[in-house]
Amino acid sequence: xxxxxxxxxxxxxxxxxxxxxxxxxxxxxxxxxxxxxxxxxxxxxxxxxxxxxxxxxxxxxxxxxxxxxxxxxxxxxxxxxxxxxxxxxxxxxxxxxxxxxxxxxxxxxxxxxxxxxxxxxxxxxxxxxxxxxxxxxxxxxxxxxxxxxxxxxxxxxxxxxxxxxxxxxxxxxxxxxxxxxxxxxxxxxxxxxxxxxxxxxxxxxxxxxxxxxxxxxxxxxxxxxxxxxxxxxxxxxxxxxxxxxxxxxxxxxxxxxxxxxxxxxxxxxxxxxxxxxxxxxxxxxxxxxxxxxxxxxxxxxxxxxxxxxxxxxxxxxxxxxxxxxxxxxxxxxxxxxxxxxxxxxxxxxxxxxxxxxxxxxxxxxxxxxxxxxxxxxxxxxxxxxxxxxxxxxxxxxxxxxxxxxxxxxxxxxxxxxxxxxxxxxxxxxxxxxxxxxxxxxxxxxxxxxxxxxxxxxxxxxxxxxxxxxxxxxxxxxx
Length: 478
Hints:
The chain has three domains: about 1-150, no CATH class; about 160-275, Rossmann fold (3-Layer(aba) Sandwich); about 285-475, no CATH class. The chain is about 50% helix and about 10% strand. It contains 17 helices and eleven strands. Helix 14 (about 400-410) links the parallel strand 10 (about 395) and strand 11.
């Protein structure tokens, strides 16, 4: 565990470097801009530059605007991953953040500056953008360049396990180790995929899947790379499914990933193209914004819907014996179990046999009021609490019970990939297909959720929400 903590500490220090550098350069950029702004005559009423810079207005701006810029940097996703940054992506992210901050500052503080010449107004905006972009990017470039050199020269390494123990896995490990410029991987061993024949004479240890969690903790594993030697998608995906609950990056070659008939998003790791299947294709900024929206909407919903919650709770209590809420264990992000919360729509002890049962048409276990709630999906409303806690998202693949996951995965191996993201209250599967009455229908619905995973975006989330609202008001929830 010591190794893992050491790398986490390095990552924490690296993130602090970026945050401090951004904050300092944002301050410097805003300070220089105020001097330029004064010298170009866009500020009136101050006879001397010194008195202007000491004014309460400028001092307040020197505090407020850099902090505002930091919020933009956070939402841009720049701090999400501090290692192995793409130079091109860093350039584009910094330019986009500078553009957003420039526009915000213009509408909040500069729109009332009157020069009289429209060209000078554009010039001032361009100068502000150039200062915000140039100074911030300069420091980011220096920090990133230093980190890349540390990785390439093997001063920084990341303990890695190869999932696979056949000839392909050994060949891949040798390829990584023989590179003149390191990719940062420090191979600590191999993990046997059931059905493979481990290569004899391998100098590194070979572990079983069952002991993986213990090995990762002991060796401080930072990353997992899947390199199967057999063309057995079911066995490989079954093995991958067990990796998600470790919460580690899971990489796989695009050649094998293509066999799952899923679009590929390649992470170019210093010449070795790999697909990160532990994270969705949505950008880091999109993920941050999506989570912020989840939290904000959940808080508003929980407050505004309180009267409805009270009314529904009273009706449930008066019309059917048993608890108001129904909790059931589901599998969420990175295979972590959680308890989904619903208004109880069935009779008490609806699964008294102990075996999970799906709802069918005219299911006698559904109470009369429960049928009404399901029709308008009122029973789902308490799940805003799950969203607020971070167990779910408003839009995402519907979470299932382990009992059904074990039946679906052999039929749709790519189903395991849904554990990349938080499950949702509503989903493309629920909108396009609805409730499933058996495993075959669940398999059909999963295809829509995989389609959503491959096309995740805030725009698609909005579309799904609009369709969900239409379904709710039309009473087509069942």
